[in-house]
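note to self: dont lose this again. the chain is below, predicted strucutre after it. 338 aa total, dont forget to put it in the shared folder this time
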Amino acid sequence: MNDQLPFTGERFIPGTAGEIWTEHWHRYHFAAPLVAGREVLDVACGEGYGSALLAQRAAHVTGADVAQTAIEHARAHYATRANLAFQQADCAALPFPDASFDAVVSFETLEHIEAQELFLAEVRRVLRPDGLLVLSCPNKAEYSDRRGVTNEFHVRELYRDELAALVARRFAHAVWYGQRPSFYSVVWPEAGPAGGEIFEVSEAAADAPTPGHARPLYFIVVASASVAPLAGIAPRLSVLADRDEWVHRDYEKVFRDLEATHRRGSELEAELSLWQGRHAEAVRDRDALQAAAAERAGMVGEMEAQRQEIVRRASFRWWLALPLRRLWLALTGKPPWR
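---
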């Protein structure tokens, strides 16, 4: 994890674990061939990792971000890249001359701002007439509505028709792509692929594939004010694979943890059953002790009565009255007075 720019949930930082890294890195890998040999502006560049990646193939990349701390970090961290520069900038008021760039890349920016119209107007202004815009934003229908997610950092998410209308006001031509992180198995010929395909199946209907991804989580748009730049871009399938298999290892870890939790639950249930048995036995012992205590108390009372009788009979008056008691008993058949 980066020490200077901690992960807050709003800005992706290299080293952040989870599917978030596959989403962000894949977008930049996807854009890199599109901007090869071009002068590029990366709007909302954040930590700068994506700008640095684009710079491997672009003629020059300028990373722009509204956060001065992010820009200072990027300048220090990627200082060795000769064709890479960073500048603090508001995306709705870009400090660059008209027609300055061949391409503008901006991923996951629109949903964070209210000034979406101004932002795209600024992008159009700084692009050359045949320039390319490559942007992404969440698909509200999938990202929020279907998953029941509320992202506290998002100001205004867009449905597909809203994004299409927003882009079309500045860019007459566009090619749409969908992105969705998932588990993939990729098979390819060693000699190199001649083509590619992607399709979806469900566990319940594995023999009934449907082409493409029907529910993209993010949109990626390659747009231009001119039709010529798009005519030379062939639709392609792009797949990013995790060399370290983090998602798969994490998936396995979750199941191992679940199995361990299940085993521990079974052990605790067995221990609970044992202690319940011991508790029932203790209750029985307690009841027996209480009965014994009650019996003892009765015996103590009886012994005390006998003791008092012995004390009474030991007196001189008792012995003097003994003949009269015996006579009374003989005459009446009833116990004498005391």
